[in-house]
Amino acid sequence: MCCGSDEPIASAASGPGETGDGVSTSAAGETMDRRRWMSRLSLTLCGLAAAVAGVPILGFFLAPFVSAHPERWRGVGRVSQFPVGSTTTVRFEDPSSLPWSGQVAKTAAWLRREGEASFIAFSLDCTHLGCPVRWEEQANLFMCPCHGGVYYSNGEVAGGPPPRPLTRYPVRVRGDAVEIHTTPLPIT
Of all residues in the chain, what percent carry a pLDDT higher than 90? Predict the structure, then answer.
């Protein structure tokens, strides 16, 4: 409107499907201005980026609930290698390792021979914060050097901050071979 007249001023940029105020109109009469279009494009691209980043993260957290944990019996030596009453470190490959793990795929456990065919195997890791425990033969105890955790020879807590006994592995004797049933250890 100009100078009191009721006529709209025509824009030089107006063409078919456009009004003088820069708003596009479609054949159906819908209007889509540039700002609304850019807003929708931005939201779409942000949603796509969130999905691309979110799917692997979600998969990482849900995989332990849907994938089977590898379990395997690993031979750790012959019965004659372990004297009755002895506690020895035995080494084996971690069942949850990946093909490219290299040295970190190797792990160990404490193996204690209780009788002629009776063995107990314990994780090396303290149940307090996961530090490696050592066997003190003279004291007949497992000791954690980090925070003073102490365990009896049967793995039960003797003192210190550990909340529960050492994690045990099932052990079996097949013929003359001692085998440990390896499973991924719980995170302490």
Answer: 6
Residue recorded with tokens 């990482």:
60
Indicate whether this model's pTM tops 0.70: no
Answer for the pair 92, 76: CB distance below 8 angstroms, yes or no.
yes
Tell me the DSSP string of 35-75: HHHHHHHHHHHHHHHHHHHHHHHHHHHHHHHHSPPP-EEEE
Calculated CA dihedral for residues 174, 180, 184, 188, nearest 10 degrees? 150
Answer left, alpha or beta for residue 88, where phi above 0 means left and psi between -120 and 50 means alpha.
Answer: beta
Instruction: Please choose, from the candidates 80, 91, 68, the residue with its C-alpha nearest in 3D space to the C-alpha of residue 183.
Output: 68
Is residue 49 over pLDDT 50? yes
**What totals of helices (H) and strands (E) does the chain contain, helices first?**
1, 11
Residue ranges of domains in the chain, CATH in brackets: 72-182 (2.102.10.10)
Helix (H, G, I), strand (E, B) or coil at 137: coil
Cβ neighbours, 10 Å, residue 38: 10
Token pair in block for residue 84? 């009755």
DSSP state of 164: S
Contact 109, 122 (CB under 8 A): yes
